[in-house]
Fold this protein.
Amino acid sequence: MKEGQSLTYQFRRGNKLEKENKQEGTKGKKFLVPDTSAILTGSVNLLEENIIVPSMVLWEIAKGKAARILREQEEMLKVVKPQESSIVKIREQAEITGDLKYLSETDIEVLAVALESNGKIITNDYSMQNVAKTMGIEFEPCGIEPIKNEIQWSFRCRGCRKIYEENIKECRICGHKVVRFRKVE
């Protein structure tokens, strides 16, 4: 987190919703910012003091089958919504890396919260890890091997196999769909 900036989050105590400002994780620990997959796989204990949960992660889970997980712990969660400027920075970087098309709005919010809080993301999403790596955001995988190096993407036509460096939807030569693949150096 940048000097002079604090993270504002909502902390639920019973039916009361309070706002608190924090400079860093509790007891000197780094904030951990789980994505939806980290919560669904049980990779994080949501009640730990240094866990902050992006608001869209809660929304994403609340509309699914795992909503009961949240209902049991909802009163104790620290819920965070990032500033729009952080979301814009994440979008810009994801466009540069070629990952924007593969990130959901929730993924972008998780990255933005981690950027603002200088936190560590817990995710199994390679696109999120790639954007995080290029921005200096720490990440920890849940259930998969982490990426070791920044991923460079190229794009290949499914029909004629022409390779493009930019992300386009269909081939300019034959009109087939263009898909992304990891560039091998």
Observations:
- Strands lie at 7-13, 16-22, 32-34, 53-54, 78-80, 120-122, 138-140, 153-157, 163-164, 178-182.
- The longest helix spans residues 84-97.
